[in-house]
Design goal:
The chain has about 450 residues and is α+β, with helices and mostly antiparallel strands. It has 3 domains: about 120 residues, Ribosomal Protein S5, domain 2; about 140 residues, lpxc deacetylase, domain 2 (lpxc deacetylase, domain 1, 2-Layer Sandwich); about 140 residues, Hotdog Thioesterase (Thiol Ester Dehydrase, Chain A), CATH 3.10.129. About 25% of the residues lie in helices and about 35% in strands. It is built from 9 helices and 25 strands. β4 and β5 form a beta hairpin. The longest helix has 23 residues.
Length: about 450
């Protein structure tokens, strides 16, 4: 059985952040077994830490950002790819700004840090996760899948929207292949993207010294391309870094087409849900003391992840999650949970108590109750997590509320909610209510989790 690894000694490096342009000092530190990878902001009071876990991802626009409360660390993927590539399980990453230094746009500088510090074995065994069955994520033009495999392998195809610079590469990961075949590949962008990136406050520290720019058919760089397929290799570097947010080594064959940080992180979320499925079944969907449950088969886990069950959560299970009761339980069942998205149903009956006064001769479901339904479904998405078991979701505020059409007895309300932010006890979500495929209301809601 393989053992966990950490660094032999601390090692430091200084530079500028790609997107922030801030000067930053970075230090890698050894860490104890089973502590994982953590970022520590030494420039902030109390030196707060953020665990490198998929639950802490708050943004995937052009890079991956981790947040905890008001603390953020941007562009974490190159550092995390380095630790994953070298098989380092436990480390602390100290930095005195909000983004690690970009170096030359690749992971070479981080590799040199690890080589200088050295890697040592630890006493605890490494808990590698082997993918039991295929999983797939598709977001727009991006498709990323993972299949069972004895080791970690990545096969990737990349190109821009016009199909320019289409490249393919495939490699089985080891410390040697990571260092030689993926780590030197630099970040890149297309010339027409630069104005948009600058307007959105990004690439403030970007230059031809730390990124490759593609303009039409020309490649602008201070040195020749390091590989004929340097662009797709960098995409594979990003995939490795984003999937490191799973928090444990991974065995599987990843096949990606036009990958993105958003899709990479969504695959990590699905894998995390699959790993936690037995725990969720035991802790989140049952009242204490939790009954014994058998681990799901690969087939049943796949169905739950993809939402193919007739109901992921039925009414009885809902009443174990939500504290609401008649006449204020606004959800009948949850049909689908996929990452940070959830779909639920509410059957609107003439027997609803509010129809007695709203209105006796023209019964209409109050808009505020549709808003409450959105808030309850958003709460379910948070409360289904094992660490939130037993808590209550308090509805705090609503924004951008719109009621578009009346909801009448006999209608089936389809409630779709996407969790947009989750920081500590506070969650934010966007939701819509639809009848027969037509949106009847929508809102952005904020809620707080408290102890029951």
């Amino acid at each position: 059985m393989l053992q966990q690894q950490t660094l032999r000694e601390p090692i430091s490096y200084a530079g500028i952040g790609l997107h922030s342009g801030n000067r930053v000092n970075l230090t890698f530190l050894p860490a104890s077994p089973n502590s994982g990878i953590r970022f520590r902001r030494v420039d902030l009071e109390g030196k707060p830490e953020i665990e490198a876990r998929i639950e802490n991802v708050s943004d995937t626009n052009r890079s991956t950002t981790l947040s905890k409360g008001n603390v953020k660390v941007h562009t974490v993927e190159h550092v995390l790819a380095t630790f994953a590539g070298f098989g380092i399980d436990n480390a602390v990453i100290e930095l005195d700004a909000n983004e690690p230094p970009i170096g030359d746009g690749s992971a070479r500088a981080y590799c040199k840090m690890v080589q200088t510090a050295g890697v040592v074995l630890q006493g605890e065994p490494r808990d590698t996760y082997r993918v039991p069955h295929p999983l797939e994520v598709q977001l727009g033009e991006t498709m990323i899948s993972i299949f069972p495999h004895d080791h970690l392998k990545i096969s990737c195809t990349s190109s821009d929207k016009q199909g320019r610079f289409t490249q393919f590469y495939s490699v089985e990961l080891s410390p040697e292949t990571w260092e030689c075949e993926l780590a030197p590949a630099r970040t890149f962008c297309f010339f027409e993207e630069i104005e948009f990136l600058i307007k959105n406050g990004l690439i403030k520290g970007g230059s031809l010294e730390n990124a490759v720019v593609i303009r039409d058919d020309a490649v602008l760089t201070t040195e020749p391309l390091r590989f004929p397929e340097e662009f797709v290799r960098h995409k594979m570097l990003d995939i490795l870094g984003d999937l490191a947010l799973l928090g444990r080594p991974l065995c599987g064959h990843i096949v990606a087409i036009k990958p993105s940080h958003s899709a990479n992180c969504e695959l990590a979320r699905q894998l995390s849900s699959l790993i936690r499925k037995p725990l969720l079944a035991a802790q989140a969907f049952a009242p204490p003391p939790a009954p014994k449950v058998s681990p799901p088969t690969a087939e049943s886990s796949s169905k739950a992840i993809r939402g193919h069950d007739s109901a992921v959560v039925d009414t009885i299970e809902l009443m174990k999650i939500l504290p609401h009761r008649y006449p204020f339980l606004m959800v009948d069942k949850v049909m689908k949970i996929e990452g940070n998205k959830i779909t639920a149903l509410k059957n609107v009956s003439i027997n609803e108590s509010y129809f007695q006064g709203h209105f006796p001769n023209h019964p209409i479901m109050p808009g505020v109750l549709q808003l409450e339904a959105i808030a309850q479904v958003a709460g379910i998405l948070m409360l289904k997590q094992a660490e939130n078991s037993g808590k209550i979701a308090y509805f705090m505020s609503a924004e951008s509320v719109k009621w578009r059409k009346p909801v009448r007895p006999g209608d089936q309300l389809v409630i779709e909610v996407e969790l947009t932010k989750s920081r500590g006890k506070i969650g934010k979500a966007k939701g819509t209510c639809s009848v027969d495929g037509e949106v009847v209301s929508e809102a952005e809601v904020t809620f707080m989790l408290i102890e029951n």
